[in-house]
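1st attempt posting a full record on here, be nice pls
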Amino acid sequence: LLVIILHNLYVFISIREKSYLFFVIYLLSACLFWMISQQYAYELFWPNSPYWNSISQIVFFALMVAAFILFTRSFLNTSALYEKYDRAFLVLIGLIMLVTFVRALTGSSLNAWGLLIPLTLVVFVIAFLISIESYRRGYRPALFYTLANIAFVGGGIIFIFSELQIFPIGFITQYGLQIGTALQASLFAL
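the predicted structure (as C-alpha cells):
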C-alpha cells in the first residue's frame, strides 16, 4: 500500500486533482487504523501515551471514513450532480467528527463505536447508491469506482458486523476491512 500511497501523492502533486489527495489521506488513515487495531502503533509510535492509544483507533477510523466521503464527493462530483446526497455526506462528516472529538477531548464514556458504526453504514449505502446512479447516467468512471469499492464496503460491513458481535471473530471478520481496502487500493491503482 505504501507504493500506492506514494504514487497517488505524486499524481496529486503533479496535477493538483483533489481526489488523489483525499485518497492518500484515506489510505494513510486506514493503515494507521489497522496498526492501532493490532497494537503495532502503540508499540512503535506512542508507547508512553496510553490515553492517546485509548482514543487513537476511534480518531483514525473517523478520519478514514471522512476521507472516504471526501474522496467519493470529489470522484463522483456529488456537489454538482447529487446535492441532497452531498448535503447528507457533509452532515455525516460533521456527526462523525463531533462524536470523535467529544470522545477524544472529554474522555467521556460515550460509546463512540455505537454511534460511528451506524453512521458508517449509512455512508456505505449512500456511496453505493450514488455510484450506481452515476453509472446509469453515463459516467463510466463510476463503474470502476463501484467495482473497486465493493471489496472495501464488503470488508467494512464484515468488520462492522464483527464489532457488533453479529459475526463470530475469525480471520475474515478480523481482517476483512484490511483485505477490502488493499483490494480497493489495488483496483484504483490500475
